[in-house]
Automatic annotation (TrEMBL):
This is Uncharacterized protein. Residues 1-21 form the signal peptide. Keywords: Signal. It comes from the Bacteria.
Length: 405
């Protein structure tokens, strides 16, 4: 082995492999030592931005003699630790840094390019100024809202009334019922929720169920207002790909059309005592499926269908299977309902990392932060006498938010 040590590291890797599988009788290969990689960085010395604003820091990086090695990037700032000693806090690992911070100050941002064992560093200064505005951790502005049918939705005769009531509930810390599959709401924060590197960023709290009231987790989509027009444009939305996203039972681009129940039709009683009207509310989907939602005896006086909606309406999203098990020997009076592991609202840990966002093809996207969040019900299931699985929104907040001093 000793005779090989004069060669470069690259060659050692290759030779070690041969040494394991072959005896020493193999003829020597003469390989020129590889040239060391060289890295050159051009980075502007100063940037300026307002707090919660995004500035793109885009260095020019030239690498020679990389010998097939891929470069890695690291952006960091110095942050005072609990002991008062400044430590490097990593804030990015892609070539371009989308810098955003909640605190007005001067930041020295360090940049490292690493190729194999060669490291090149550069730094720049970012001046972050105040905006004069005050901010809140919670998303309090409702932009859009449409519940799916459900026994617990708030009914109003016009869409405007329903919207106003939901907006007021959000601002006053109340709740908003979303019904069953596809029911949604879109809310806006008053600041861009920062996608903190390597950390979860916001949380979606939903009402928690009981023995008789069962709720569904909710799916989440996020939008960064990239064009700064204050609106969530169609091409700015990305879905949070949680634990169920890649499962074979998950149906992307699912569409469910609900039909308004005929108020004068006679109820079609089922065989079980709670089945008040088994033909109550018809639905069809875009997978050739169809069926009817049963009205339960307890809710017989409730209108499940939003009164302000016309004869039919369609809701869309990714449909996720949720385990639902009758534990009442088929009487339909008691159920165990499963949950999802991570990446959804209304689960044990409803904190979301913005880095889980994916595009329409399921490809990960990097967002510096998000301004808008859509919450929708991804399940379509009923739990017998306890009626439809629905979801009830309570609160959404930026978990890394620090109130201005
Ligand atoms: Ca994050
Ligand atoms: Ca926009």
């Amino acid at each position: 082995m000793k005779k090989y040590l004069k060669y470069s590291l690259v060659v050692i890797g290759l030779v070690s492999f041969y040494a394991c599988s072959n005896d020493d009788s193999k003829p020597e290969e003469i390989v020129e030592p590889a040239k060391e990689a060289t890295i050159a960085i051009k980075l502007a010395s100063e940037f300026a931005v307002q707090k919660y604003g995004v500035v793109s820091i885009d260095p020019e990086v030239t690498i020679e003699n990389a010998n097939g090695k891929t470069e890695t990037y690291q952006w960091s700032i110095k942050v005072a630790g609990k002991d008062g000693v400044a430590k490097d806090s990593i804030i990015g690992d892609s070539k371009t840094l989308l810098f955003i911070t909640p605190k007005a100050a001067d930041y020295t941002v360090d940049f490292k390019v690493i190729v194999d064992k060669i490291v090149k560093q550069a730094s720049t200064k970012v001046t972050v100024s105040e905006t004069g505005k005050t901010y809140t951790a919670k998303a309090l502005t409702l932009l859009d809202f449409l519940p799916a049918p459900g026994y617990n939705i708030d009914n109003y005769s016009t869409k405007e009334e329903a919207f106003e009531a939901a907006q007021q509930n959000i601002q006053e810390g109340g709740s908003v019922a979303l019904g069953t599959f596809g029911g949604y709401m879109v809310t806006a924060f008053d600041h861009t929720v920062i996608n903190v590197h390597g950390k979860r960023d916001f949380t979606v709290q939903m009402a928690t169920g009981s023995t008789t009231v069962k709720y569904s987790p909710v799916s989440i989509a996020v939008a960064y207002d990239a064009n700064k027009n204050g609106k969530a444009d169609e091409n700015e939305w990305y879905e949070i790909a949680g634990s169920e996203y890649h499962k074979s039972t998950t149906v992307k681009n699912y569409e469910l059309t609900y039909r308004k129940p005929n108020a004068s039709a006679s109820p079609v009683t089922g065989t079980l005592p709670w089945q008040y009207d088994t033909a109550y509310l018809s639905w069809t989907d875009n997978k050739n499926g169809s069926g009817k939602i049963t009205k339960t005896l307890t809710r017989r006086r409730v209108n499940y269908y939003p009164e302000w909606q016309t004869d039919t309406y369609t809701l869309k999203g990714t449909k996720i299977a949720i385990p639902v098990k009758d534990v009442s020997d088929g009487a339909g009076t008691a159920f165990n309902v499963g949950t999802f592991d991570w990446g959804y609202g209304g689960i044990a840990d409803p904190t979301i990392d913005i880095s889980w966002a994916v595009d329409k093809d399921g490809k990960k996207v990097h967002l510096p932060g998000i301004d808008f969040v859509k919450v929708y019900v991804p399940t379509f299931a009923a739990v017998g006498a306890n009626d439809l699985l629905t979801a009830v929104f309570e609160e959404m907040s930026d978990i890394n938010f620090k109130a201005a001093k």
